[in-house]
């Protein structure tokens, strides 16, 4: 009895050692490959620390031109700062409105199913039932995948220079993010609460209103506040392509070589972003 | 044989018409290792009856109940509730579901809504979507909801959020939600499995009162024998998806219980005891 017992333990120990060796060899192989790929990549994109060291005096030159910042320029930035916040507010608000219906379409459990009687094969049903879901996800991925600056360029050519183009750019990009996150939140709701409302004889839409929405509201609000924070950051650079806000002052002072004023712009942007971050984190803590 | 409560309005249960009729219902869950949850189950339940369906975990009690209001689609067989065949066609199904309230083991209240809103959601099937879109109910609905809450002595918590209540309180609100549907049948799926014995008896008493006083047919799933003996008039014993007993609770002998709980298959004890 004890003999077999000890033999079993010894055999398992030996197996453990073999396992360890195999894992080590595997780790070494993958690790080596990763390092090789990264080294090759760094070479390809011209990553060269020497260039940075050689360019140090240029950088120093640039920085000294900015110091000390011309703080009196702050008084000229008031309007642009307010405009930045306004762009973020309206962009986020529009995104919230758009993303409510889109998130319902982008969740497997609330999306309208496409029923076509002549499709009987399982694979046909699986792909076609979720047609609306897949199309919505595709749209959202497109919105999320395209940077706000690119949207801003498009809208500047459509509605002209100014903050409205920025609002539209942020609204579209933020819709992609909000609706995707909320769609995933909807897919994760408690099925029991849904069943209970279904069992009362409620229609599909009533079930969404009374069992799904109450469950996802806290997460939705939390995402929206987070998104507002991100929108503020985006709104500070949209001016680079002429879509209003602080970014426009930034690029303007740089092009006029008035670096003392550029420094002030950067300072104001930093304060605005830090302030928004602080307020949003307080606000979210209160909601959750 | 008959231990009828004195307050029953209709004397002689035998003369009451059939309310729920389950005929040859089978259900096999598809997928890897397809499981036969129900095998040719037939049960007739009369109006105002308090019926306990007794059986171990995994006997198919839940599946049977869910077939009655089509939360689960049976593989074969037919179910008739109040003279109406239960189908999966949406409009007709909603009409049947309105007649059939359900109470769950996990209560399944919508946690972030108030007690009143939860009970009012029992009224949804009486309304059009347009009214629901603004979360509005009329005065009559509110009167019904508060009456139902008072019936389970929960009206003092009307405005509290559902997730602030204890388990027993949540289950009472869930009963009120089912009552607010003004149903003919209430399905209670293991309503006391997550409650302590004292609260469990309280909840079962409410359910039994509902059957006796309001004439609502109550089907109640239980796995505890003592509760079945204490509360049931009639017991249906379910084991491995088949009815192995159907009779008054007085006739639940040890032999029969043995059959319900320990009827092992040829393979031996592959279930928990």
Structural key phrases:
A: 288 residues; mainly alpha; B: 273 residues; alpha/beta; 6-stranded mixed beta sheet; 4-stranded antiparallel beta sheet; 10 strands; globular; disordered N terminus; disordered C terminus
List the helices and strands and how they pair.
The complex is a heterodimer of chains A (288) and B (273).
Chain A: H1 2-44, H2 49-54, H3 56-66, H4 74-105, H5 122-129, H6 131-145, H7 148-159, H8 163-187, H9 191-199, H10 204-235, H11 246-255, H12 259-287
Helix pairs in contact in A: 4-8, 4-10, 6-8, 7-8, 8-10, 9-10, 10-12, 11-12
Chain B: E1 18-29, E2 35-46, E3 50-54, H1 61-68, E4 76-81, E5 84-85, H2 90-99, E6 100-103, H3 115-120, H4 129-133, H5 139-151, H6 167-180, E7 185-188, H7 197-214, E8 217-222, H8 225-231, E9 234-239, E10 242-248, H9 254-262
Parallel strand pairs in B: 3-8, 3-9, 6-7, 7-8
Antiparallel strand pairs in B: 1-2, 1-4, 4-5, 9-10
Helix pairs in contact in B: 5-6, 6-7
Structure description:
- The complex is a heterodimer of chains A (288) and B (273).
- Chain A is mainly α and 288 residues long.
- Chain A is built from 12 helices and no strands.
- Helix content of chain A is 81%, strand content 0%.
- In chain B, helix 5 (139-151) packs across helix 6 and helix 6 (167-180) packs parallel to helix 7.
- Chain B has helices at residues 61-68, 90-99, 115-120, 129-133, 139-151, 167-180, 197-214, 225-231, 254-262; strands at residues 18-29, 35-46, 50-54, 76-81, 84-85, 100-103, 185-188, 217-222, 234-239, 242-248.
- With 273 residues, chain B is α/β, with parallel strands linked by helices.
- In chain B, 41% of the residues are buried.
- Chain B has a 6-stranded mixed β-sheet with strand order 6-7-8-3-9-10, sandwiched between helices. In chain B, strands 2-1-4-5 form a 4-stranded antiparallel β-sheet, with helices on one face.
- The model of chain B is unreliable at 1-13 and 265-273 (pLDDT under 50).
- The interface between A and B is medium-sized, with 21 and 33 residues.
